[in-house]
Task: structure prediction
Amino acid sequence: MPDDEIKRREEITKSLARPGTKVTVEEVGKGPLSIESEIEAYMSIGPVLEWLFELRKNNRYDAIIIGCAGDPGLGAARELMDVPIIGPAEAAYHIACMVADRFSVISPTQAGGVKAADDLVARTREMGINSRLASVEFVEMPVVEMWGDDATAIIKQATKAINKAKENGAGAVVLGCMSMAFRTAKTKWEVGIPVINPLSAAIKVAESFVDMGILQSRVTYPAADFKKLVGTVFKQ
Result:
């Protein structure tokens, strides 16, 4: 990802956090340019875990947010780290369930323009809320075209998708891509139902977890066995 895009995202994130919350947006340095397929999702996890392992040596964060609304590697990251790890999709989906009986996800098309909803449906099934998913709607724009400041095109397409979601019974919608979330972070949606931005949701959940002193359960996410992992998976 270009340095100017990383800087732009950091400034947006800082503007959404409350005063006193220090935010850094970091790139792991390896992995796919964007995540628009299962291959890219899986290939992104290893570099993230390697980056987190290095971060453990001098951890300067109170909480960490996965930078993709597919939450790749979320469970593994929680096993690895001793600070809250927040998945933007998980945070946003649960908030959507708090404000509506059913919600839809607005997603970019996958690689090659494919409209595939299986991964999103599987994610809601993992979370036990698939019965709350009204539909998955799509915007006709690749992820990398969502970088930058001009949100006009994505807002137009997303609004059309939101109207379809309403027709399918959604009482709220979640933006299903972090690039979409960054690009529309300041948008005042006038669509008649709540629009949950996963970036905002993740930031506020992270702040709340830190305030409440909540960490992922070691029953659900057992601590990583570093004696086994160091030297075989991770380099000391």
